[in-house]
């Protein structure tokens, strides 16, 4: 019975987010020359968008639906070796298919940060001053947190 209830909840969540994300635009010069990996725009061939947890996929769709534009992922899943080579944290959510670094062409970074802070799916948020992207992950928030765990300049 729990499995059936979980399935119904997941279908409802997907049904609420997916249609809005399906109408997100990918037109304009900000998408020129970019490739896609498993339906997600990526900034380089080194970005792996295959391994995204369902909750992370929902969060990305939520961003796309809210802003009406597709995200461009700078970093998705990382192997432990790749994560170490780019200076990622040892227990990085990227190695667990639970994190993405992205931007949306034409959307100010401050708008992405504000939306991530207000989104209940965002468990962690990294802002990286001087960079055009944000980091979001879907870790469980610690008890008592009403917003995401923030780090790196947020």
UniProtKB/TrEMBL annotation:
<protein>
    <submittedName>
        <fullName>Peptidase M15</fullName>
    </submittedName>
</protein>
<keyword id="KW-0732">Signal</keyword>
<dbReference type="InterPro" id="IPR009045">
    <property type="entry name" value="Zn_M74/Hedgehog-like"/>
</dbReference>
<dbReference type="InterPro" id="IPR013230">
    <property type="entry name" value="Peptidase_M15A_C"/>
</dbReference>
<dbReference type="Pfam" id="PF08291">
    <property type="entry name" value="Peptidase_M15_3"/>
</dbReference>
<feature type="domain" description="Peptidase M15A C-terminal">
    <location>
        <begin position="54"/>
        <end position="137"/>
    </location>
</feature>
<feature type="signal peptide">
    <location>
        <begin position="1"/>
        <end position="21"/>
    </location>
</feature>
